[in-house]
Design a protein that fits this description.
about 220 residues, alpha/beta, six-stranded parallel sheet, 8 helices, 6 strands
Length: about 220
């Protein structure tokens, strides 16, 4: 069979939604996999990913594009959808790529002591961590932080820090100044100038990369 038009499934980062993708310009069919409420505080990532995967047809060749925590879910969904290919943007593949603070929290449970409501109250601190410029990027970050569900955040951080990782072929796009996941650039095929939210600041270049990747998709 000949080339088929790519189908894109986009998975936003922790606490974010389709707003982080608003500046992408992807060709062909695009779907955003929106977050679902966790069924319990102990729901596992594979179980949660299976619920998200219900929106991705099993027999459909597609691309899963996951941003940050969304990349973790993209890797988990790909275990259930063998025709899916994965692109990680500002994400990681296992605990070996966590910064020292993340590794310490993973080992000690330190994250349980930090209230998830703290970061929205400190937007300028969040701006520094996310490497966001003033203007539309900062305003969007403030809106996302304001709208984040603290219960979902607590569940997601716990699952993320306990995640053992996935080893599979992936395309990776990462910011060279990413403060949240600084190790990611060294493992990425595409290194772009910027911080953790390059999905916004480098939307044009990421759109170009994705459209180029999607062009040769074969059924």
């Amino acid at each position: 069979m000949g080339p088929t038009a790519p189908v894109w499934y986009l998975v936003p980062g922790l606490g974010a939604d389709e707003r982080v993708f608003q500046f992408l310009r992807l060709e062909e069919e695009v779907h955003v996999l929106r977050w679902l409420p966790p069924q319990s505080s102990c729901e596992t990532l594979p179980h949660y990913a299976a619920r998200l995967a219900a929106n991705v047809p099993e027999n459909q060749p597609c691309w899963l594009v996951g941003v940050s925590f969304g990349g973790v879910l993209a890797l988990e969904i790909a275990q259930l959808r063998p025709l899916a290919r994965v692109v990680l943007v500002s994400s990681f593949t296992g605990p070996h790529e966590l910064p020292w603070l993340g590794r310490m929290a993973r080992a000690t449970g330190l994250h349980y002591l930090v209230p998830p409501q703290l970061l929205p109250r400190l937007p300028r601190v969040a701006q520094w961590f996310f490497g966001v410029q003033n203007g539309r990027e900062y305003q969007l970050l403030r809106q996302i932080l304001r709208d984040t569900d603290p219960h979902f955040t607590r569940w997601a951080i716990a699952r993320l820090l306990q995640w053992s990782g996935r080893t599979m072929p992936t395309i990776r796009i990462h910011g060279t100044a990413d403060r949240l996941l600084p190790a990611g650039a060294a493992h990425s095929q595409y290194r772009l100038s910027g911080g953790h939210l390059i999905i916004i600041s480098q939307a044009r270049e990421i759109s170009r990369i994705l459209n180029q990747l999607g062009a040769p998709l074969i059924a």
